[in-house]
Amino acid sequence: MTALEKFGTYCTFMVQSIGVPEKWKEFFKRYINEIYKLGIDSIPLILIVSLFIGSLCTILIKLNISNPIFPRYSVGMTTREIILLEFSSSILCLILSGKIGSNIASEIGTMRVTEQIDALEIMGINSANFLVMPKVLGLITIMPFMVIICMATSLFGGYFICVLTGIVDVDTYIYGIQSKFIEWYVWFALIKSLFFAYIISSISAFYGYTVKGGSVEVGQASTDAVVMSNIMILVADVILTKLMLQ
User: Fold this and answer.
1) For residue 180, is it left (φ>0), alpha (ψ between -120 and 50) or beta?
2) Predicted local distance difference test score (pLDDT) of residue 190
């Protein structure tokens, strides 16, 4: 299958997936379950990664701008800008695509190779809508909250390393975080996260839904889903940054 054919199949798949649920009660049940499984279960990973990234950003920025020309609060201000503009949305979603994307692709792919999807279609159920839409909407709903958690934890990681090592005065670091704050950067990260959540969930579901073969093919589909999601996140990141920060 060529790239153009695969893109056309993906578009057809998404048109089939998005629609009015046949049973709203079942849809909301699956929707809430996906929010918990894809989002809430990922919070421990987000906390650990964000804490260390915030600490590392503070250390590396301090080492690279230790110059009398730069004010001391530049460390906190630069750390904040890096976290808000790029890490809390783009880098976080690249990390989460490995966990969430492989989970979605392997789950749907296993259902495909074990003929559970065929059974749903025999019963007259739109299997794509039934399986995919709760995952897509669930991840889109919870992703901005995970980004906010990432922002707060990363900034706390920088604060923690300042307290622990004294590399930067704590009051100076806090002043740097507050200095010249631009609210739009927070909204920028949240808006990007919505696009990235759609990319991760839809592409991973597509690769899982269209898998053919057995367990080996399911594993390959999971890998392909993560790789393609990462590529599309980077492409979307460049486009959105150009459009919204021009």
Assistant:
1) left
2) 93
Q: List all residues 6 or more positions away from 117 whose beta carbon is below 8 Å from its beta carbon.
A: 108, 111, 127, 131, 209
Report residue 147: phi and psi, to 5°: -65, -40
Residue 16 lies inside a defined structural domain of this protein = no
Tell me what pLDDT residue 1 has: 64
Q: Is residue 236 part of a domain?
A: yes
Residues 108, 228: Cα–Cα separation, whole Å: 17
**Averaged pLDDT, 196-208:** 92
Work out the angle at residue 145's Cα, subtended by the Cα atoms of residues 142 and 147, and round it to the nearest 5 degrees. 110
pTM for the full predicted model? 0.91
Q: Does 3 map to a domain?
A: no
